[in-house]
Model the fold of this input.
Amino acid sequence: MRLVVILSPEVKAFLRTTSDECMVIATDGLWDVLTNDEAAKIALKVLQKKRGSKNAAQVATNYLLRFATQQR
Done:
């Protein structure tokens, strides 16, 4: 496997709305194994389970990280 690091990251801009429930910001490590929709569904599922918890975002992040590393 050949690893390549690029100087200029791929950046996309989106208009956020009040109906947005979360935003997933990640590197290729996640996007290589999950589609945008898959990552969003997983994050939302975890966030809904942990709703009201102070660490809900951290739990969702950890879950996505574990999921992505298990898929590699």
Q: What stands out?
A: The radius of gyration is 14 Å. The chain has a mean pLDDT of 86. The CA atoms of residues 7 and 15 lie 25 Å apart. The chain is about 45% helix and 0% strand.
